Amino acid sequence: MIDIETAKQLVKKNTKPLLKETILPIEKSGGYSLCKNIYAPINMPPFRQSAMDGYALNLQDDNIYNIIGEVKAGDAHQPVLKKGEAVRIFTGAPVPDTANAVIMQEKVTITDKELVIQNSLSENHNIRAIGEQVKKGDLALEKNTKLTPAGIGYLASLGITHVSVYKKPAIGIVTTGNELIDAGEELNYGKIYESNSKMLQNALYNLKFYDITFYKVADNYKETLLELEKASKNNDLVLISGGISVGDYDFAGKALYELHVKEHFYKVMQKPGKPLFFGTKNNTLFFALPGNPAASLTCFYIYVYIALQKMMDRDKLELTKVTAKSVNGFRKFGDRPQFLKAIYKNGNVEILEGQSSAMLQTFALANAFVFLPENISNVNRNDTVETILLPNY
Ligand code: AMP
Ligand code: MG
Prior knowledge:
The protein has seven helices and 27 strands. The protein has helices spanning 4-14, 149-157, 196-206, 221-234, 252-258, 293-311, 361-365, and strands spanning 21-25, 38-39, 49-50, 54-57, 64-71, 85-89, 101-104, 108-111, 114-117, 127-128, 139-141, 162-166, 171-176, 180-181, 192-193, 212-217, 237-241, 262-266, 277-281, 284-289, 321-326, 330-331, 338-345, 348-351, 368-372, 378-379, 384-389. It is elongated, with a radius of gyration of 31 Å. Residues 176-177, 219, 242-243, 291 line the site of magnesium ion (MG).
């Protein structure tokens, strides 16, 4: 059995960035990172643009201007302004070449066909210059930039339709257990509704991993071996739920061994989630997560999370940790370090009742774990405790 830090280090050390490229339409590229620099194919803005609703002027010393026409957004015509002439103009409209400033409509007085300004203007006032945001051929977004809604909007404004990004891992979720049935089926004696696959799928969706395939096996060695072999061929990451403990019908460990998956660790000194396995075969990662739902999800957030971030070549590999003041007391039994479901808010944290690894009701309310190391068995009210913020925080 190894300790938590060693286990995390082994995950970091044995997970390689995926670095597979894929081309996506920009509207589907949110959350992906660019695998190439993007250079601007056009100047942005592509023409001298009015930043205001108002009047474009050919500046002169006098404050009275003659209005000779109008340019709306989208217009292509080029009225020619002599010194002392103005055109009505609107935000986003092209400023005629012969105009050298735009004045806001709130700052002028109009009399008949004449326009009077109060203060003199400097050249290029309220005119967005060609290429002011980015010039044609210049770096628009750098390689490794993670695409956000703003990033996608920016690329769209440059007329870009597709981007080359790092692929996200293909992930297999293998559920094991004779007792598991799907929702909608009759709940006969001895059976339970399968929940881990839905839970893990959603944890992955929240982190924007969508390429997921499901595999289901009964507690049967041959079936386990066959499905695991399939899962290992078609995925970059395989998450096995259950069947990794020491029971007579836990076959995941034996099947992983038979498939020559290299074990990096099995069993971690922690609660919940002691029977956790991590291994690799070629470039595919395997986590066998405990079947108990709360233990399964805890191991996901502490270990699988690291692997996912490392596969995406990100710098921050672990969930955010903060220190917080405990609003209640807690007594820990046993000597294993514990991840306790908790609610964090404004620097305070409440350790919840019902920490069993088989129960999800408490976890459903939690937005954090309080981490109690081996040497701390009692938390008193107002103690400072290490708190790990979950992605749903
Ligand atoms: P195991 O790790 O296979 O010994 O399972 C431990 C506990 O978790 C047992 O009570 C199982 O019934 C339960 N369990 C295992 N897999 C799932 C699952 N996919 N959904 C809900 N409960 C599960
Ligand atoms: Mg089982």
